[in-house]
Specification:
alpha/beta; ATP-binding; 14 strands; globular; 402 residues; six-stranded mixed sheet; transferase
């Protein structure tokens, strides 16, 4: 069974093809084919990169025509040219798509039909940047692959079992009835990492209390008990929660009222400030990339140090909140770009929980290993670094719906 995965965003798209001819393996196999489209690298051109399992590589700069045409061209590299890994589109058995927002209605992955597509359109009100791009990928695949079954894997679905006390905001009920509630995001990553954690610990997922820390440019935590998310830091939008690369995370709502009263402020400008000019970037005045921040700290930049300290304070504070929701902890998981590659962040975060008996093995932590336990042997809480594999999780969801 060959499963094509599309992970479409507003500025980029990642795709890969898995061959599950021998059934569903216990760990992620190497894809037959991987592709990435960067819509923003050049003003007039789109950058496409393709690589195959046998080492073939294709890099192209294409004139920026319509996005569906570019996606269709990317598909053609599956069966044409040096990067061909199948003989025709008919060899693709299923296509899985990451869909950012599934609302309260979609609590699990779904085979895509007209009803599901209409829901993705309706829920674009809550995810105006992502859901339209997700739908664009779905419709582009329909044009090329015809009636090949397609699956929507919702990023919000893993958090759909939050209890009302965890998802309800303290606002008038009439707004809650309009759909304003905590949804949570990064669910595909949190789900994959919780399953992988159980594997690494040789424990049943249902018996574990986990905090998964997805730390990239966007950041979120999930408290996972009995295999389900019972609390999370992102909310109605991905802006809530942790301090992030360029997003503010949770701030006093009164600040927003104050800023909107300024004569030079409007909603669009405020949106840009909170999502693109805040977080680590806003505090440091340098960058939202923690690698740059750490270099500046080494050079004695006090503002970079403050950005790091605020980031860590926010991370510890929210881990503490997740800990309270779980009433205990078996393991904490670090994943995504920062979580997997920044031992300094992991060490600083864990230092706040030594009172739990959590102890890092500093040698393992600094080796930058993946899919390993970096806690000391006598630590009462395990600490895992897991390479998140959202594409593989999407493929697994397709397999289960075949």
């Amino acid at each position: 069974m060959k499963i094509l995965v599309l992970n479409a965003g507003s500025s980029s798209q990642k795709s890969c093809l898995y061959d599950l001819a021998d059934g569903l393996p216990s760990s992620a196999p190497e894809p037959l084919w991987e592709a990435a489209i960067d819509w923003t690298h050049h003003d007039d051109f789109v950058e496409i990169k393709i690589k195959t399992h046998d080492g073939k590589v294709l890099q192209e700069d294409l004139k920026a025509t319509s996005r569906p045409e570019i996606i269709a061209h990317m598909f053609e590299t599956l069966w044409s040219g040096d990067t061909a890994v199948v003989s025709s589109p008919a060899e693709i058995d299923m296509i899985g798509h990451r869909v950012v927002h599934g609302g309260a209605e979609y609590r699990q992955s779904k085979i895509i039909d007209d009803v599901v597509k209409a829901a993705i359109v309706k829920l674009a009100l809550f995810a105006p940047v992502h859901n339209p791009a997700n739908l664009e990928g779905i419709e582009a695949a329909e044009q090329v692959f015809g009636k090949t079954p397609q699956v929507a894997v919702f990023d919000t679905a893993f958090h759909s079992h939050l209890s009302p006390d965890a998802y309800t905001y303290a606002i008038p009920q009439r707004y809650t009835e309009q759909g304003i509630r905590r949804y949570g995001f990064h669910g595909i990553s949190h789900q994959y990492c919780s399953d992988r954690a159980a594997q690494l610990l040789d424990r049943k997922l249902e018996d574990l209390k986990l905090i998964t820390c997805h730390l990239g440019n966007g950041c979120s935590l999930a408290a996972i008990r009995h295999g389900r998310s019972i609390d999370t830091t992102m909310g109605f939008t991905p802006l809530e929660g942790l301090v992030m690369g360029s997003r503010s995370g949770s701030i006093d709502a009164g600040i927003l009222i104050h800023l909107l009263r300024q004569p030079d402020m409007d909603v669009e400008k405020l949106d840009r400030i909170l999502n693109r000019e805040s977080g680590v970037r806003g505090i440091s005045g340098i960058s939202g990339d923690l690698r740059s921040i750490l270099k500046e700290i080494a050079a004695g930049n006090a503002q970079a140090q403050l950005a790091f300290d605020v980031y860590v304070h926010s991370l510890r504070s929210h881990i503490g909140a997740m800990l309270a929701s779980l009433s205990g902890l078996d393991a904490i998981v670090f994943t995504a770009g920062v979580g997997e590659n920044a031992p300094t962040i992991r060490a600083a975060a864990c230092a706040g929980f030594e009172f739990l008996g959590l102890k890092l093995d500093s040698n393992k932590n600094n080796q930058r290993l993946l899919d390993v336990d970096i806690a000391a042997p006598d630590s009462s809480v395990r600490v895992l670094v897991i390479h998140t594999q959202e594409d593989w999780e999407i493929a697994r969801e397709c397999w289960h719906l075949r």
